[in-house]
Every structure is written in structure tokens, then in C-alpha cells.
Structures
1.
Amino acid sequence: MLKVVLEPNFIQPGNVFSLPLDYRTGFMSIIKSAFQSESPIDYDLVFNRRTVKPYTFAVAFGDDVKVQDEKIYFNRPLEFKFSSFDLNDEILLYNYFVRSKTIKIFGRDFDVSNLWIFENKKIKGNSAIFKTLSPVLIRSHKNEKFYLCPKCENFDGDEAFYEALKFNVSELVRNLLGREVSGEINFKPVKTRRVVVKHLTDRGNLKLPGFTGLFLFEAESEVLNLILRAGLGARRSQGFGMLELVYEVSR
């Protein structure tokens, strides 16, 4: 995983800074620029040829965050986290941030004040508790316009969620591991909430339902490590579905 701390390099009254509520598109542009700059060959593979991207990302604004008038307000440095099934992608972005030193996000300068790259802990068993770093979107495989959620603290759950989840994971395994899923896939919410996220897509601004929080996931260890590194669900490369391992569950 790559972690980058970005410090605003401009003055705002009260040191309160803002980005558009759909901030993810700005970071998608940064990732694309990094691939273009550091490796045209990888850029062509990831953006022109590969249909399933092997990475995910998340942005943290700190605890003191306010959403108002289609903007998100914050007063702390941003934390940008990027993880890929292909370690080369993480190294590529690391080198880009080291060389750039200052990054433009929606026309504003942010200094790279610190960055780290470290390996995720490898999961050895078949059961683990995960925490979402960005909302997870599970798209219905029967109607791609619909997104489904599990039972949450604030939602009763969509009946077709588990079938769609298993289909999503099976497709990810097929595309990135080159094989079929072996064994059962089980999901159990621990402490989750349904959220609705505004996101700019090729079909315009959409409001996408997803979920955040803690959940138990059971699958073969290679699949658990895959979703830890590449993310879970739809639109992972657009800033959704990034996970953090809380702990393995002993059986």
C-alpha cells in the first residue's frame, strides 16, 4: 500500500480548505497522470487494454469534516491511500509523487509532505474482519444500473445482495487471478452503514448506494488477499471498495 500526505499550499480563511464533493475524479486524474509520466507501456495496458483495473484508492480528510453546498470542507492535510494487486503500480505512483513534490487537485497546489510504501500483511487463513477505507459498491449483475447493500444499522438489506457480491468477487478472481473461485464465499456485516455517494460517471452525476464499516469475509486465503490489495466491488479504480485488514479470524 502507498500512503501520501498532501498539505495545501495555499491560504484559506481560518485554514479551512475545500474540494468538490465529487473529489474522487481529481485523484483519478492524478493516477492517470502518474501512469502516463512514469510508464507509457503500463499506461496503455491499464487504461487502453485492460478492462478490469487491479487497483483501488481512498482519501481521508480527518475527523473535522463538513459537507455543504456541494463541497467538502476540511482543515487537516489529506491522506491519499493507493493499493494494487500489482506492486509495480504502487512503485510507479511512489516515484511520481517523489518527483512531482507538488500536485494539482482541481487547480489548487498540494505539497507532498510525506509518503510511505509498505506491504500489506498477508492473510493465511480463510476468514478475516475488514474495515472499509472507502465505500463499497456492489453492482447488480442482472441490472448494472442498480447497486445493492447488505443489512446495515440503517438499512434492512437488499435481497439479491449476496448473489451479486459473489458474482462481483468471482469476476475479480477470474480477471486478476485467471481462474474460478474455489470454495464458499461468505459475508457477514459486523457494524455497517448504508451510504449514498455522489459520483461523476460517463452517464453524468449519479447517486450511488454503498456501505461502509466492518464486516466478516470468508473465502480462500488467495481471494482474501486479492480483495485486500485490489479492493472489493464495483468502481474500485474510481475510489471505492478499498479495505483495511482488522484481524484474521481463527478457526
Note: The domain at 2-117 is CATH 3.30.70.1890 (Alpha-Beta Plaits).
2.
Amino acid sequence: MVRITERRAGVVIAAAILAALTGCTPTSKEATMTPHEARDTLVKTITDTAARLPVSGWTDSGAPSVTDCDANGAAGAKYGYFYRASPGTDFAGDAKTVADYWTSLGISVRTVTAPDTAVYGTGGPVQTISFQTAPGDYAISGTSLCVPGDVDTLIDEQAGD
């Protein structure tokens, strides 16, 4: 009986050590995602958010823009994207819809109501994301995860599209 308890304690300790070590290895989304996947994930997160709101006529600001970032000490790339439409009429309700959806994606959210209703998010499939209800329109914008990549090459690719 004592041996079984000691064995279980050993297994629990080994599992705890393995979990701690695994948390320190580069298994995050940033380490496994390509720049194109980071871009596409950002755009999908934003357009899927817009699809949940009772407004139409969403337009983007063009192709997602790429900029450099520090990907854990290596050259990295991240994208920015902006999407807008005429505003709805239930700012608080729409903000709740957005916050609930983002929370379901693993995004940490913060909602503010003054001076204008807005939802801000970080984490999950994106670095940052926001939903704004002013001035005079709804806007969803965000930044992708920073992933290893060469910004100059990505800009050249984008210019060739």
C-alpha cells in the first residue's frame, strides 16, 4: 500500500516536471506558424467577428500590411488589418457579442463604455485586436502574432500579387 502511494507521488511529480518543462519549450503558435498563416488567421478572426454583427457593408483598408517584429530574438513579421462598416444601433449588445466570441477563441478581452463603447483583446490567435463603435462607424482592427519571417520578402510577394 505504501509502495503504491509512493509510486503515485513519483508519477505526479514527474508529470508536474514534464508539464513545467514543456511550458518552457517553443511550442507556441508563434513558433509553428508561418507569416502567411499568421496573416490569414488575423483576417479570418476579424471577418468572422464582423459576420456575427447585425451590420452589412464591411470594407477593408486593402491588403493586410506587414511590418517587422522581434520573434524571440529572430527577425520576425506581423500583419495589421482594418475592417469597417456603418454602425449598428446596439453598441453594448454588439460589444458583448464581440467579447463573447473573442473569449471563445482564447482572447483576453476588456470592454470600455466611455467615451465610446469598445472591446480590446490580446492573445489567442492574434497579438491584439479591437472593436470600436466610433466615430460614426464600426471598426475592427488587429495585429497578427509575430512569427519568424523576412519582411522584405513578404512585401515583395505582396507587391507581386
Note: The longest strand covers residues 74-85.
3.
Amino acid sequence: MPEQFKDIKNQVRDSYAKAVSEAGGCCLPVGGDTHLGTLDPQAQAGLLGYSQEQLGKTRGQANLGLGCGNPVNRSDLKPGEFVLDLGSGPGFDALLAAEMVGPEGSVIGVDMTPEMITAATDHAQQAGASNVRFELAEIERLPLADASVDVAISNCVINLSPDKPTVYRELYRVLKPGGRICISDVLLEKDVPESLKNDPAAWCG
């Protein structure tokens, strides 16, 4: 991995570790200047289409307002499917997916931030969700066998990778033939200056 990639990933990891213990997210901070940034995480999630039932109890505690969409509700999950949550954070979407696939299915959440893995595991235990687990790993190197995943979801994470082609190659590798991807993320409307591309602080600022 190029040295600048390591610096970028370390910056992102540190920002999201901090987000676990602070209100709001590192990319949509409470009181910030984004169109959702002045809302608390629950209100923000409501605007993104999550129901009050989904936001209730332990699942609501797992919502830190870090997403930018609602891949779970659009992924057409079915009972018995194996789901990968790419960059699962505190486990909000993964827990919802675990409910949707039922006891015959299972979910794995992958995140590179140890604090997120700890929080997500705690939330799963509090929810009594036995069909979901969380593993510390980078999304460019998924800890999964080839052709093992029915559905991959991701919520505002892939934009944070400095090596997006590798992310998509890994997704292709782990998906079963006919598998599905449902991604919510931010997109560029114009080229980003090289100075910003190579500035670790700009990746989550």
C-alpha cells in the first residue's frame, strides 16, 4: 500500500474512533454546515427513510448518524441470505439486516476501526442478535471466501477508501454469481485537486 494511502486510512480510522464517543458523525457533525448536519442522528435517519420501529431500542443506540442513505431498505433482503455490511460502524444497518434475513440467514459487518467493532458487538449482544458478527478488517482485504456473499451493503463508506478499484474487485470476488450490491454513498460532480486527494485531513473533514 502506498505511504499516502496509509496516512489517509489512519486519518479516517482516527476520525471514526472519535465519532464513537462524540455526538454526530465525523462527516455529518451535529451543528455543522451540511443540509443534514444540524439534525440529531435519529432525526437524520428518519429523513433517510428509516422507520421509528427501526430506530427503536438498541438499534437506535447503534445509530450515530454516520450514514448518507438507507441501503438496507433498498436491498430486498430475503430470509436465509448471507449479508456483508462493508464498513459497518456501530452496527446499525447490520442489525437491521440481521432481522430481515432471520435466523436462517446471517450478517457479517467489517470495519477497520477497533472502537467501532467493540461498539457494534456490544449493540448486537444487547439486541440479542445471534446471527450477526463483526470483524476487524479493511474493505480492500475482505476476510471472506470467494463467492460466499448473497448481498453486500454499504452506507457512506467506500468514498473513504483511497483505493476504490480494489474495493470493487473484492466485492466482485466475494459475491456469489447473481449476488447483489446496494450502496449508498457520496459522488463527485467534478475532479478533486491533487492537493486534496493527497491530504489525509481532507478525507474526513
Note: Residues 23-37 have pLDDT under 50 and may be disordered.
4.
Amino acid sequence: MSNELRESLRKLCEALNQNSVQCMLVGGVAVGFYGYERQSIVKDLGRPELVHDIDFWYNPTITNFTNLVQALKTLGVDTESLSDYVFDPNKTFLRIPFGTFRAEFLPSMPGLESFTTCFKRAKRIKFDGNELVIIGYDDLIVNKKTLGRDVDRQDIEQLQKRNPRGPQP
């Protein structure tokens, strides 16, 4: 991870923590945490993208969404248009460019139970002084199986090669 990307992610984690946003890292970066690093692909272009794609699953409550918008505001994101959103806990998806990466905030994850249930099972680490919550290994595998895309099948295969019994304590 480049220093620039690391610093941007640190600032994002700090803002999310300071604004009490309940969320967890999911997707390709979570796969990397569990041992298999790969590049994201721009679907329309079919080539490796230059901007990292970092996915977060957020607790889809109105209070948490409001906290998320406030965290983005503290980072200098223009949140004016977000105030026009009619919050829908099943559909309010945000894609926010941060220069070195694009953060996507997802209200749900296919194949998984409630956010609260998965949040309890999630892995918590310190990332440059900030808490970073990462989807649990088993939940990540269930989500990847449900999605069933080629990239998801490859992620599962590579994770199971590297950690056949899942992550070790």
C-alpha cells in the first residue's frame, strides 16, 4: 500500500471513528487482509484500474447514515447533494472519490444476515492508530459465494489455498 493511499485511508478511518459510524471493510481489500491481494478491475474497461476501490458495509439506520454523511463532510466531501437523498436502508449506496481511492458505502451484503450480527463476528484491528473493522472470514466467504462472479470464485479459491481452515488467531 502506497504512503499516499495509507494516509488517505487513515484519515477516512479517523473520520468514521470520530463520527461513530458503524461500518466494516468488505470486498477486495478485506480479501487482501485475509491473505490474497489482487487489483480491482474497471468492469466497463476490462483492465486494471489505477484507483483503488475500498468497500465498506455500513449499518443502514438513519442515525448511522447521518453520522456517515457528517464524517464525509469533515473530510471535505461535498455532501450538499446527499441531503436531497431519501434514505432507504436497502438502497442508499454511496460512491465517494478520494483521489487515491474510491470508497463505496454499501447498505447490504448479498447472502449475509443482518449488519449487527456480522458486526459482532467481525475482526477488529488497529490501523495507524484507528480502529478498523473487517468483515469476518466466514462471512466474507458466504458473501463471495452468493455473489458468484468469476472474481469472487477466484477470491475464494485463493483464500482457501492460503488459509484452508480460515484465519488463525
Note: The chain has six helices and eight strands.
